[in-house]
Sequence to fold (121 residues):
Amino acid sequence: MEIKGKIHEVGATQQISETFKKRDLIVEYAENPTYPEYIRFEALQDKTALLDTFKAGDEVEVFFNLRGRPWTDKAGKTSYFNSLVIWRINAVAAGAPAATPAYAAPVDVSNAPGEDDDLPF
Fold:
């Protein structure tokens, strides 16, 4: 999955355990500019370094995986949690038009004047 938006906050790297670290990224997503959404992403392990070159205000395209898991409390009630885990992030140049894909030039498939068309329709 992917989303484009503006970085609101880049969190510090958190060393959760001896072998596990993570870093949060908050992106302002404004599909409707009147009501922007603030979406939290996680960068895990070696992906935490992906955020080193970014700062608040940068326009980015974030590529991520959606993960979900259950958690059962002591009373036996199960809750479900979702995580958006970054696997790639790209800077988007402000005001730059979206890149247009390169296509082959159109080919004229109509008959040349004077040629017979042997198709039955």
Q: What stands out?
A: Strands lie at 2-10, 14-17, 20-29, 37-44, 59-72, 78-91. The CA atoms of residues 48 and 103 lie 36 Å apart.
